[in-house]
From TrEMBL:
Keywords: Membrane, Transmembrane, Transmembrane helix. The chain crosses the membrane at residues 12-32, 44-63, 75-97, 153-171. The keyword Membrane applies. The keyword Transmembrane applies. This is DUF4199 family protein. Pfam families: DUF4199. InterPro entries: DUF4199.
């Protein structure tokens, strides 16, 4: 199965643009409101806003200007590649920013996550058990910029996978 160059061009254009916009959004929240870009709220908010928007716009552009007879498979291919480019772009930009200018982001994230775990210790130990709670605390302490970036890629890709299915069904011939 060959990937058409027009699929790559459109997917990379919308995916990279979506990744840059998502990164700038997270950076703006950090600079204006001190909201850590690695926090669950920022990640979920930017993922649920920007992934569907850029997947939809990219597939719509592809159908309108490249292939009006768009099949489900081709629409899905465009959408999933947009998601992949977006996820990798935002994670790489976040990683570069963290390594160059924002070395305090990861320790800040770890501290915030540990604080949340400690605040909800009673409920968590009831639902997952003491051993799993201790494992969660240990796992949060071992986070790095790379592991947080991989988490971002995974979250965006999973959301994008489902958005890709929906947009492929919506835009098919």
């Amino acid at each position: 199965m060959m990937v058409d160059t027009s699929v790559i061009k459109v997917s990379s254009r919308y995916g990279v643009l979506g990744g840059v916009v998502s990164f700038v959004f997270g950076l703006a929240l950090y600079l204006l409101y001190k909201q850590n870009p690695y926090s669950e709220q920022t990640e979920l908010f930017s993922t649920l806003i920007f992934v569907p928007v850029f997947v939809f716009l990219g597939v719509k552009y592809f159908k309108k200007y490249i292939n009006p007879e768009l099949s489900f498979a081709e629409a899905f291919k465009v959408a999933i590649l947009i998601t992949l480019f977006l996820a990798i772009t935002v994670a790489l930009l976040q990683l570069l920013y963290t390594l160059i200018l924002g070395q305090d982001l990861v320790p800040q994230f770890i501290l915030e996550a540990q604080t949340e775990l400690v605040k909800s210790k009673l409920e968590l130990t009831k639902s997952v058990g003491v051993d799993n709670y201790e494992m969660m605390l240990k796992e949060v302490s071992n986070r790095s910029a790379l592991s947080l970036g991989l988490k971002q890629i995974t979250l965006r890709w999973l959301v994008g996978f489902f958005v890709s299915i929906v947009s492929a069904v919506f835009f098919r011939k």
